[in-house]
Design brief:
167 residues, alpha+beta, 9-stranded antiparallel β-sheet, disordered N terminus
Length: 167
């Protein structure tokens, strides 16, 4: 899978989704914002919940967003469709370097990935790299058919938030 998605506001910012080997997924995107601004959108629950859920998933809500973004901290995201049935995703932060890097586990199942997001300043912009390593080829295949398909849309929503076009 190697996909380029154009930014609606400017073709220079694209989301690239690339499979690397049997167990790795790498997503990159440049944002017209500083690393500290992009880092805040990933580390402050009130900002994170404004862009993380794909708008194309009608009725899906992030009903709970708990994030203690520090090395050793934990997170728990609970999604629902308005009823009593919810799905939780949770894990721990293995490494947090403000404005540079966040590394976390995805502990909701045995096939959870370890995710690293880096924020690299490029003048007035930030190159964001979202890198996941899965425990098996099958786990990566499942992600490529499921949650990973939303990543370009999520990056577009983050871009909209950072540029003031978001909600």
């Amino acid at each position: 899978m190697n996909e380029q998605v154009n930014d609606a506001a400017g073709a220079q910012n694209r989301t690239s989704v690339e499979r690397k080997g049997d167990r790795e997924l790498v997503v990159t995107r440049t944002f017209d914002a500083s690393p500290s601004t992009v880092f805040r959108a990933w580390s402050q629950p009130e900002l994170f919940q404004r862009w993380w859920v794909p708008k194309s998933a009608p009725g899906i809500l992030l009903v709970s967003c708990e994030m203690d973004v520090r090395t050793g901290g934990k997170y728990r995201l609970e999604f629902g469709a308005g009823g009593s049935d919810t799905m939780a995703f949770y894990g721990k932060y293995l490494e947090v370097v403000p404005n540079e890097r966040i590394v976390w586990t995805n502990d909701e199942g045995e096939e959870g990935a370890v995710t690293t997001v880096t924020f690299k300043g490029q003048g007035e912009k930030t190159l964001l790299t979202f890198h996941e390593i899965y425990p098996s080829k099958e786990a990566l295949e499942e992600a490529l058919q499921g949650s990973a398909t939303a990543l370009p849309e999520q990056m577009e929503q983050l871009d909209a938030l950072l540029s003031g076009r978001g909600e």
